[in-house]
Amino acid sequence: MASNEISLYRQIGTSLIEEAGIRYELPELFYVSTEGEMVEMNDLKNNDEVIEVRDDNWAPQDNNLIYNQKFIINNPSALFGTEKVTDSANKLGLAAHIYSKTSFFQETLFCDGDIVDTDEEQIISFKHTFDADTLRGQVYLDFFIYLKELSKKNDFQASLAGTNLCQKDIYNAELLIDGEGSVFPITENEVPGGPLWSVKKLWVDPSVEAFDTNSVQIEVNKANPLLEQAMNGKTHASAELMSQILLESISLIISQTLDDMEKQDLKFEDATEGSVLAIVEEWIRVYNIQTDNMMTIFNSLQNSDMHRQLIESGDEEDND
Fold it and tell me: Pick from 243, 230, 233: which is nearest to 316 by CA?
């Protein structure tokens, strides 16, 4: 939660983290090889929070990625009581908000296990499998403690199950994914008073030019006050705003590419791997996009899994 926001309920700050003895082990990464064996990635460039994911036998397009991490709470009882973040009758949980503008998704995952009022050490494990060909560029994982089950409410304590109770995240991880893929070519400019975003077509022949910032750009405006909400927000509203930027941009890219195909007498089989045309063909095929006209393209995207993946996120909205 931003430092300039005022909460009407008690939260877990630095001092309470120390009092409860909340700590974490560094993440462990695995993948399943083509032979079906579980392989641990040992050669990671890991500086505690930024993890460069590299392995000679792992490719993001071909292999999944399994993320494991343990969180330890030495003294959970420090979180409970009428003067703490929640009543002793309630339960807390651990969750991770996972998002990536380059991998094109956002979601919140809730760990199994309850955090309850006890003097005994509790260990909460987080495990998530990213399917092959879903990770590109930068992927962020923000871990936080939330109100899982409410049985009794006290004054100045959160009253809505699902509420994020942390002033700052328990742990933040950034995965840097090596490898090529249909990364969304998002660039930035700064135009005071200008639109939030625009699309630039820089390609001439979509069948051979790579789908990257040299051929097409979704350009966002850093001077627009809505940009921070769109790019960094964690609410459904911010996810929807970012999804509309991408969906409208993709609609324009598809429409323009189909127009070029007609003018240049191109077919999808003419596309080289990784080209603009190859990516557009993949979108149309995977998401069953109706290409009769611009409106059917956009409406198909709006009703596709692509849209649902973009707006799938946990409720991390401010709660009074």
Answer: 233
Distance between CA atoms of 255 and 289, rounded to whole angstroms? 11
Residue type (1 letter), 135: L
Question: Which segments of the chain are extended strands (E)?
Answer: 22-24, 28-32, 38-40, 45-46, 50-53, 65-73, 91-100, 105-110, 122-130, 137-149, 171-177, 186-189, 197-201, 216-221
Return the pLDDT at 232: 63
* pLDDT (mean) for 52-79: 91
Our CA dihedral for 17, 20, 25, 29, rounded to 10 degrees, sits at -80
At a CB cut-off of 8 Å and minimum separation 6, what does 16 contact? 78, 79, 84, 85
- Smallest CA-to-CA distance from 9 within 147, 173, 213, 128 is with 147
Instruction: List CB contacts of 153: < 8 A, sequence separation 6 or more.
Output: 87, 159
CB 94 within 8 A of CB 71: yes
Model pTM?
A: 0.59
